[in-house]
């Protein structure tokens, strides 16, 4: 089992719709969770971070965390063509001997069609 | 702040040659990470440092790979000898603390022929 799993997609949604991206992780001790966006040929850029169970909203983005189910998701409301990118889920696997270790999923490619 | 600075942006070399990738983290960040990204394997953690000390190098694929951080503002990733399967984009990233988000450099695209 991979440590961080995402559906590779592509996930295709029409402009203006809600895009839902999901991620599961294997280490119950994980304490920090991040969503990064990566455009083709560019480096990953941080969209959201979440550390506690529940929802965290920032503009059109909402991150949801459920530690009991080892599940984290990202919702993008009013999707725009400029949101088309690969979305990477990253999980911080600490504490423990590997404190500071941040593991990424394979990424989900999102296509927003005008 | 200038962000994480990596050099070179592109590197093309022949199999068997030594390759050195360089990284300058954001000033004040205690953690520095080296990742490798390929289509097949995604973004893989190679090694990370805390306060210039290597903490976990379990992701380093082989003894051909080595990384150093001689001071808080500079790190290198060296491949010797390089092989075609090392072709990938290598990212350096830094973070302020253990739980902080990573800030990525622009990456080095390595091509080994």
What would you say about this model in short?
The complex is a heterodimer of chains A (114) and B (113). With 114 residues, chain A is mainly β.
Shape of chain B: globular
* Major β-sheet profile of chain B: 7 strands, mixed
How many beta-strand elements of chain A? 11
Oligomer: heterodimer
Mean pLDDT of chain B: 94
Strand content of chain A: over 45%
Report the principal-axis shape of chain A.
globular
- The radius of gyration of chain B is 13 Å
Q: Roughly what fraction of the amino acids of chain B lie in strands?
A: over 45%
Helix content of chain B: under 10%
Residue-averaged pLDDT of chain A: 91
Unreliable sequence segments of chain A:
none
Our measurement of the CA-to-CA distance between the termini of chain B, rounded to an integer number of angstroms, reads 36 Å
**Structural class determined from secondary elements of chain B:** mainly beta
According to DSSP, the number of beta strands of chain B is 11
Task: Walk me through the structure.
The complex is a heterodimer of chains A (114) and B (113). By secondary structure, chain A is mainly beta. Chain A has strands at 4-6, 11-14, 19-25, 32-38, 45-50, 54-58, 61-66, 71-76, 85-93, 101-104, 108-113. In chain A, the strands form two sheets. In chain A, strands 2, 4, 5, 9, 10 and 11 form a six-stranded mixed beta sheet that branches. A five-stranded antiparallel beta sheet of chain A has the order 1-3-8-7-6, with no helix packed on it. Chain A is globular and about 40 Å long. The mean pLDDT of chain A is 91. With 113 residues, chain B is an all-beta fold. Chain B has strands at 5-7, 10-13, 19-24, 31-38, 42-50, 53-56, 65-71, 74-79, 88-95, 103-104, 108-112. In chain B, the strands form two sheets. In chain B, strands 2, 4, 5, 6, 9, 10 and 11 form a seven-stranded mixed beta sheet that branches. A four-stranded antiparallel beta sheet of chain B has the order 1-3-8-7, with no helix packed on it. Classes of the chains: A mainly beta (114), B mainly beta (113).
